[in-house]
Amino acid sequence: MLQKVETRFSHVKPGETKFLSGGLRDFFLYRDLGIAEATRGMVIAQLVKANEAPQDGTGWHYHEANFHIVIMLKGWARFMYGNQETLVAAGDCVHQRPGIIHYLFDYSPDMEYLEIAAPADFKTVEVEGPCAVPPVTPWT
Fold it and tell me: Would you place residue 4 in the very low, low, confident or very high pLDDT band (cuts 50, 70, 90)?
């Protein structure tokens, strides 16, 4: 049986929240969509976009999250999931199963994705990677 948790209605329109720095990665900008507040921390939904050219990427890590998806809205990003390189392009949806070790190492200047995760305050744990990471594509 589902646990009943009091949530609130939320409707965030473009322009009501801004893309800001200060999120998990310095080289990305984040736009809060109001879901963490509406669900009292059960879920977060945010837009993430490229802000600086890729250099070192995210490093190898995993998230302590029960649910985590990335829906690429614009551009592309290259991830390593374990030792498998994966190109995620506009229109693609990736379910990052709990505990999957990954590395976002390359992305286009116009990259923008929707990230939805539970809980809202999921933790990121840096780990040793299983393999080398390919080089990035320079922005021109």
Answer: confident
* Three-state SS at 20: strand
Lookup: tokens for 125: 């744990």
AA identity, residue 49? K
Structure tokens, 64: 């302590």
The Cα–Cα gap between 9 and 34 comes to: 10
pTM over 0.90: yes
CA 140/CA 62 separation, integer angstroms: 31
Q: Where are the beta strands (DSSP E) in the chain?
A: 28-32, 44-50, 61-64, 67-74, 76-81, 84-89, 93-95, 102-107, 112-118, 123-126
For residue 6, give every residue at least 6 positions away whose Cβ sits within 8 Å of its Cβ, in sequence order, or none: 40
Angle at 86 between CA 84 and CA 92, to 5 degrees: 145
Residue-wise pLDDT tens digits, 117-140: 999 999 999 999 999 999 999 998
HSE-up of residue 100 (Cα within 13 Å, Cβ side)? 18
Confidence of residue 38 (pLDDT cuts 50, 70, 90): very high
